[in-house]
Write a structure and sequence with these properties.
Radius of gyration of chain B: 16 Å
Strand order of the largest sheet of chain A: 3-2-1-4-5-6-7
CATH architecture of chain B: 3-Layer(aba) Sandwich
Order of helices and strands of chain A: EHEEHEHEHEHHE
Shape of chain B: globular
Largest interface: A-B, 46 and 44 residues
Distance between the termini of chain B: 33 Å
Strand content of chain B: 15-25%
Helix content of chain A: 25-40%
Number of domains of chain B: 1
CATH topology of chain B: Rossmann fold
CATH architecture of chain A: 3-Layer(aba) Sandwich
Oligomer: heterodimer
Number of helices of chain B: 6
CATH superfamily of chain A: NAD(P)-binding Rossmann-like Domain
């Protein structure tokens, strides 16, 4: 299979690229590095990326900006960081990918454990991540040609504890290599409309 | 209790007003009708509404636009119709209401059955309604002073079958007066972070 991984230089994305490269041809995409660069918030750039890469069997996204901060200080603009980045950035990829995926191909997006298990300071993240999962459930029933779409909802990564550990006290961190297995289930599997919980 | 109902002239909102007015003082708000008007997609408009109404014990929102279209033809702009209205409109109300609610007061928002049970043409509706529910789960754990927040997820209403019936074939419609009971559970009850599913069968 030919698989594009967007966010391939991040903690999760690099583990996903390693996992999938054992069996598949992987195209790595980042915002600044990787084989191709894209700003997923810009739909025109996303469409150009797919026009360059040509037909694919799978697209994985492990990317998207989110704002973290206490509810009492949040403004609409803080919510729009995640709506524009993590939510619509991934939706842009899914919408553009439809035309370039071979029959039976898959789209795998990323939400997060705070969708189901809220933590302090993450209400804007919970909002955007829940939106991703809702989109996946609905898109799954309308995609043509056996195209599939799933989401992976990861917990906090061992590799990210130095950044996010304080937010996730009491949550069991997992290795990015374990989270990558959930993406492999989506890419190599046959289900659609699923949320794979990597926790 | 003093309760503001935003979207008070809609099918759900009218029934919520009728239900709550039996026990509470209800302030009705609409986009064009009601005692006060608000453009809830604009947080400044929400701020001036609550500054006029003053302290309240509960805020209910049953309002918000969504775009329906086949997935293949959806544009980013069409997704933003629902994100700016049904999602951020309700978030705006919740953000501003924090300051105007008395201790123990409640915020009740509206999602919809398609958050969990998708229908054709409903990619934006599922996205937006799920995001509203995610917001409510996240906000519930951070609200101060015993403030509560819940969301009602109604199925299609009998009163709306003329417009929405063809989208919801096989879904059992319920009377708006039954959906209104879920809002009453949120307003008069004591729970927070809940999704009250009005008429949904598992």
């Amino acid at each position: 299979m030919k698989v594009m991984v967007i966010g391939a230089t991040g903690t999760i994305g690099s583990a996903v690229a390693r996992e999938l490269a054992q069996r598949h041809e992987v195209i790595t995409v980042g915002s600044r590095s990787g084989q191709h660069q894209v700003n997923i918030e810009d739909f025109a750039q996303v469409k150009r990326l797919f026009a360059q890469s040509g037909n694919l069997d799978a697209v994985v996204v492990a990317a998207g900006a989110l704002h973290v901060g206490p509810l009492s200080q949040l403004t609409p603009e803080h919510f729009h960081v995640g709506l524009k980045g993590k939510l619509m950035g991934q939706v842009n990829v899914a919408m553009a990918a439809q035309q370039y995926l071979n029959d039976g191909g898959s789209i795998t997006l990323t939400s997060g454990i705070d969708t189901d298990h809220p933590i302090r300071g993450a209400v804007a993240a919970s909002t955007a991540n829940a939106g991703v999962q809702g989109f996946v459930r609905a898109a799954a029933i309308e995609l043509p040609r056996g195209l599939r779409i799933n989401a992976v909802s990861p917990t906090v990564m061992q590799e990210s504890l130095h950044l996010f550990g304080d937010l996730f006290t009491g949550f069991e961190p997992i290795a990015a290599s374990r989270a990558a297995l959930a993406y492999a289930r989506s890419v190599d599997g046959a289900q659609t409309g699923q949320v794979y919980k990597a926790w | 209790m003093k309760v503001i109902v935003i979207g008070a002239t809609g099918a759900v909102g009218k029934a919520v007003v009728a239900e709550l007015a039996q026990r509470h003082e209800v302030v009705t708000v609409g986009a064009r009708g009601g005692q006060h008007q608000v453009d809830f997609a604009d947080i400044e408009s929400v701020r001036s509404l609550l500054a006029k109404v003053g302290k309240v014990d509960a805020v209910v929102v049953a309002a918000g636009s969504l775009h329906f279209a086949p997935l293949a033809s959806f544009t980013p702009e069409q997704f933003y119709v629902g994100l700016n209205s049904k999602l951020m409109g309700q978030v705006n109300v919740a953000l501003v209401a924090q300051e105007y609610l008395n201790d123990g007061g409640s915020i009740t928002l509206t999602s919809g059955i398609v958050a969990e049970q998708p229908i054709r043409n409903g990619a934006s509706a599922s996205m937006v309604n799920s995001a509203v529910e995610g917001f409510v789960r996240g906000a519930a754990i951070e609200l101060p002073r015993g403030l509560r927040i819940n969301v009602v997820s109604p199925t299609v209403l009998q009163e709306s079958m003329d417009s929405y019936g063809p989208f919801f074939i096989g879904f059992e419609p319920i009377a708006a007066s039954r959906a209104a009971l879920s809002y009453a559970r949120s307003v008069d009850g004591a729970q927070t972070g809940q999704i009250y599913r009005a008429g949904e069968h598992a």
